[in-house]
Design a protein that fits this description.
Elements lengths: L1 H11 L4 H18 L1 H19 L5 H28 L5 H23 L1 H4 L6 H21 L4 H20 L6 H89 L5 H31 L8 E4 H19 L2 E6 L3 E4 L1 H18 L4 E9 L2 E8 L33 H12 L4 E4 L5 E8 L24 E5 L3 H14 L2 E5 L2 H11 L5 E5 L8 H8 L8 E5 L4 H8 L4 E4 L4 H12 L2
Parallel strand pairs: 2-4, 8-9, 8-10, 10-11, 11-12
Antiparallel strand pairs: 1-3, 4-5, 5-7, 6-7
Helix pairs in contact: 1-2, 1-9, 2-4, 2-5, 2-9, 3-4, 3-7, 4-5, 5-8, 7-8, 7-9, 8-9, 9-10, 9-14, 10-13, 11-12, 12-13
């Protein structure tokens, strides 16, 4: 019967029968052992009261004949329980099952010995003694019911040995005494029923606790697995971060060199055919640079770790480089270029805002074949409203949401790479979300497009950079002395060609030691210092620049880097030094050197 209940409980709660059997048996043995001491104390209290009440009504020899064995059995039960409790945590399942049998035998002996009291003490001439003995046996039965509430089998086997004896005794006394035997039998059945319910409830509670414990163990195991997976993911992310930084730098180096070499070649006297080839080559490099930047930007934004570096910016600082670049592109394509903006300060992230404008203007020029492209930035209340307009083919209303999806291109079924690969506006969407710029599109087929967004005005003024408009070098740097720290042989060679073409005095070294040696030979510092941020053997340009900041002005040092990891970019931007991201065009380099020469 007990096995049947436990099997049902374990099945209902989804636990393995063997595991539940073990858990149930352990709990049952533990509870019976824990309740032994109060049960023994109760027995001795009942016997003391009984002795006090029947001292002068029953022979002492009979009383001792009953009390002696009962007391000895109770003490033995107590010793067995204490021994089991001391060893329970280290017992095997077989040892626990053996302990369960010892407790069962102890219950059978105790119940039988207590029940014999009706014969040894109660069977005297006075009915009062038999009545009091029946009462004592019944009270012990109630105590046994409590003690064995978790073990229905033990109670079912032992209670007849206890209650069956007084029932038999009163039944043998005659018909009139059946009025005592019948209630005793009824009480016995009620106790059996009560213990059965209690035992079932106990089994269910053990099963629930067992299941809870199993679930907690499973959760704990899953937690540990999750922590291990998280640790592995963090290590992988660190490795990925390092790889992306190194790969970005290493991939940008040859692109940087090719860009410089092509720009340098354009300064040489070339035939018409060669000039056209160089022009196409520069266009291809610009497409490659845009694709490369877009791919890296997309991976940075998808990682969800890009945090904007918000600060007060001069609108000149944002617009002048873009104006110089895109005016030439429009001229090359035969488009009119119009750029109007206010001389104000706004609050934004320079890199993100420039990227947002760059992608929108590039897109406008790419798809406009005649007419004009215009950029306006006007103050509206406490914000600057940017508008990029073109006279291109326009966009259908249904496509005005799709154009911001990844790799979506309209009117480019042949996937012409000169029109990009459909990432420019996808990055615009992500930057718009980061800056909360409120980007909108107004467009109609055949009537061009108009993209608008906003940036807040800065709460305080900022100093606008004083950069001259870009123009051909014409030996403009002839009197300047520029030093460069660059360890990549290909880039060093390209820089040499570029500075030779400009007619500028320069020195290129590979690391800090060579730089300090050059300083010692030259007895002074140059007019401008350009440092690559990722050098060999763990050196970086920022550390070198920081160490030199007490010896030459910060504005005369330029940091260049191919590492586009957000944390490093932010650190370089906030360092107080000028900073450019590779690949750098010769125009960008020229602009910075001109800014240094103007101080």
């Amino acid at each position: 019967m007990r096995q049947e209940h436990k099997a049902k409980d374990s099945s209902r709660l989804g636990t393995a029968p063997e595991e539940f059997e073990r858990a149930h048996l352990i709990e049952s043995v533990k509870i019976r052992c824990q309740q032994t001491l109060p049960a023994v104390q109760g027995v001795f209290l009942i016997m003391a009261i009984f002795l006090f009440m029947l001292w002068d009504q029953a022979p002492l020899s009979r009383i001792l004949l009953w009390v002696g064995p009962v007391a000895a059995a109770q003490v033995l039960r107590l010793q067995i329980s204490r021994q089991i409790m001391r060893q329970l945590d280290s017992m095997t399942f077989q040892e626990i099952a053996h302990s369960d049998k010892r407790l069962l035998r102890s219950s059978l002996i105790n119940q039988a010995l207590v029940g014999t009291g009706i014969w040894t003490v109660g069977a005297v001439e006075t009915d009062n003694v038999a009545f009091f003995m029946t009462l004592a046996i019944s009270l012990y039965g109630v105590g046994a019911m409590v003690n064995l509430a978790s073990d229905y089998r033990s109670f079912l086997l032992s209670i007849p040995l206890l209650m069956g004896q007084p029932i038999l005794y009163w039944s043998l006394q005659g018909v009139d005494e059946l009025r005592i035997a019948a209630p005793l039998a009824t009480l016995t059945l009620l106790m059996i029923s009560s213990v059965r319910r209690s035992s079932r409830t106990f089994a269910e509670s053990v099963a629930m606790r067992f299941e809870k414990s199993a679930l907690l163990n499973k959760v704990e195991a899953e937690r540990k697995k999750a922590e291990e997976a998280l640790a592995a993911a963090q290590e992988a992310n660190k490795a990925k971060t390092y790889f992306m930084a190194a790969a970005s730098h290493d991939l940008r180096q040859p692109l940087y060199a090719v860009s410089l070499l092509t720009d340098t070649l354009s300064y040489q006297p070339l035939g018409e055919t060669a000039q056209e080839i160089v022009s196409k080559q520069r266009q291809a490099i610009e497409v490659l640079r845009t694709l490369f930047n877009n791919l890296l930007d997309l991976s940075r934004f998808e990682a969800g770790k890009f945090q904007p570096s918000m600060k007060a910016l001069s609108l000149d600082e944002v617009m002048r480089p873009l104006e110089a670049e895109f005016q030439l592109l429009c001229q090359a394509k035969g488009l009119a270029w119009r750029c109007n903006y206010s001389r104000v300060c706004l609050y934004s992230d320079l890199e993100l805002l420039s990227r947002l404008l760059n992608n929108l203007i590039s897109n406008a020029i790419r798809y406009t074949h005649k007419g004009e492209v215009s950029v306006e930035a006007a103050v509206e209340g406490r914000r600057v409203a940017f508008t990029i307009s073109d006279t291109g083919p326009g966009i259908e209303r249904d496509d005005q949401v799709r154009i911001f999806e990844d790799f979506v291109q309209l009117n480019n079924p042949s996937r012409n790479r000169e029109k990009g690969i459909g990432m420019g506006l996808a990055i615009v969407r992500r930057i718009n979300e980061i800056l909360d710029a409120g980007l909108t599109v107004q467009s109609s087929p055949g009537k061009g497009s108009r993209f608008s967004f906003y940036a807040p005005l800065a709460e305080y003024a900022c100093i606008a950079p004083s950069l001259r408009d870009l123009e051909a070098p014409d030996n403009a740097f002839i009197d300047l002395n520029v030093w460069l720290v660059e360890d990549d042989p290909l880039v060093r060679s390209a820089l040499s060609f570029q500075f030779d073409a400009w007619g500028c005095r320069y020195e290129i070294v590979a690391n800090k030691d060579e730089l300090l040696a050059l300083r010692h030979r030259s007895q002074g510092w140059p007019d401008a210092l350009i440092l690559d941020d990722m050098l060999d053997k763990g050196e970086d340009g920022l550390d070198i620049a920081d160490s030199l900041s007490q010896q030459m002005p910060k504005e005369k040092m330029l940091l260049v880097s191919g590492n586009v990891q957000p944390e490093r970019v932010r650190e370089l931007q906030e360092s107080g030094f000028s900073f450019l991201t590779k690949p750098i065009s010769s125009r960008q380099l020229q602009t910075w050197i001109e800014s240094v020469s103007s101080h």
